[in-house]
Amino acid sequence: xxxxxxxxxxxxxxxxxxxxxxxxxxxxxxxxxxxxxxxxxxxxxxxxxxxxxxxxxxxxxxxxxxxxxxxxxxxxxxxxxxxxxxxxxxxxxxxxxxxxxxxxxxxxxxxxxxxxxxxxxxxxxxxxxxxxxxxxxxxxxxxxxxx
Length: 147
Hints:
This protein has 9 helices and no strands. With about 150 residues, it is mainly alpha-helical. The two termini are about 35 Å apart. Residues about 140-145 have low confidence and may be disordered.
């Protein structure tokens, strides 16, 4: 059984973690690192990473990259920017890292996704396309196939 002070501390920690998550959601295209996120909520980077993973199931960096890839998917579906332009527009500094992470989460390269998405989401409202094309980690996709 947890004491009231421990429960109150847990709620304060969750509120700080929500602030970090909300900042990532808002500023995904900015240069963000775990140390800066941790400083903003007066935590060490290691403590923030552990608590964030406990609360949300992934590290702050992984969450940031997922947000960037989601935004990249939307930009690639629109087809107005090149893959390189999309990479920098979502805050990635390295095309190689962007492409690798995109492939891990989406299951295909950004250029292949762009070609496929151009025809695959035609006529679908953007709010539905966003939900249907949301990236799923390959490990999660495999585990859901086996159940």
